[in-house]
Design brief:
This protein is mainly β. About 0% of the residues lie in helices and about 40% in strands.
């Protein structure tokens, strides 16, 4: 890449290129954006965001634009949202979220709207949820989660519901899970995970089950994994990873296996432009 960055996002565009957005640099927060071209293996710069940010979300909309929401600039979270147009390489601001948030999730629903859940606000964890409508560029509030949480996951199930798992609040880590029903705008409590975790991953398998891997637990970094069955609302333990990790990624491959890569197995928090006693991993494994 043209710039060193962490805590950024990456989105695959319709033309196959990968759009990498923002993040924390070596000594500053970034508003720079780059495109990776798989056919040439090269990186090119594209239009900068109006706001430098990390801990944000990105969502590729039905109109091919990429929506960026919230995030952190090293000082404060914010509610700013903006749109990237791949045809022009430029950004336009859209209406801001109702609540400033970082470390939240964003999920594209079947109706094309974007569901933003939780995160960390200006002073505490959030249970608030809002919907972005790409046709109007507006935000509306919807049902609150039962628990305020950040660094959680959100997965769209086959039935269209959104499964939110784990995460943190101001002084604890959760094993709780809940389901958002887009038809009612309400949340339903479902089975809790066997282990409390944040900074984990959640992947929807071909059989419709959700695989959760690793993360940061109450007192340690986790190598445990578990499966959620939407038909029963229950969790079962799956095989442990070889390496305990959080801040990792999980990708579903064409053959249905799940590739887990990298992450961290140190205990200290990450600050913008600085790691404190970290142990970054280059190991990968397959489920």
């Amino acid at each position: 890449m043209n710039a060193a960055r962490l805590l950024h996002t990456a989105s695959i565009l319709e033309n196959g290129k990968v759009l990498v957005i923002g993040g924390a640099g070596t000594d500053n927060t970034l508003n720079s954006v780059e495109l990776y071209d798989p056919t040439t293996g090269s990186w090119t710069s594209t239009g900068n965001m109006s706001v430098a940010r990390y801990y944000h979300t990105t969502s590729t909309l039905g109109n091919r634009q990429v929506l960026v929401t919230g995030g952190f600039n090293g000082t404060t979270p914010f509610n700013n949202a903006e749109l990237y147009d791949p045809t022009t390489g430029s950004w336009t601001t859209t209406r801001s979220m109702k609540v400033a948030r970082q470390s939240h999730t964003a999920s594209i629903l079947g109706n094309g709207k974007v569901l933003v859940t939780g995160g960390y606000g200006t002073s505490s964890a959030l249970n608030s949820v809002e919907l972005y409508d790409p046709t109007t560029g507006s935000w509306t509030s919807t049902g609150n989660m039962s628990v305020a949480r950040y660094d959680h996951t959100a997965s769209i199930l086959v039935n269209g519901q959104v499964l939110v798992t784990g995460g943190s609040t101001d002084n604890s880590i959760f094993n709780s899970s809940e389901l958002y029903d887009p038809t009612t705008g309400n949340w339903i409590i479902t089975g809790s995970m066997n282990v409390a975790r944040s900074y984990h991953t959640a992947s929807i398998l071909e059989n419709g089950k959700v695989l959760v891997t690793g993360g940061y637990g109450d007192i340690s970094i986790l190598n445990s994994t578990e499966l959620y069955d939407p038909t029963t609302g229950s969790w079962t333990a799956a095989g442990n990873m070889n390496v305990a990790r959080y801040y990792h990624t999980a990708s579903i491959l064409g053959n249905g296996t799940v590739l887990v890569t990298g992450g961290n197995n140190g205990f200290q928090m990450i600050y913008p432009g600085q790691f404190v006693g970290y142990f970054t991993l280059n190991s990968t494994e397959l489920y």
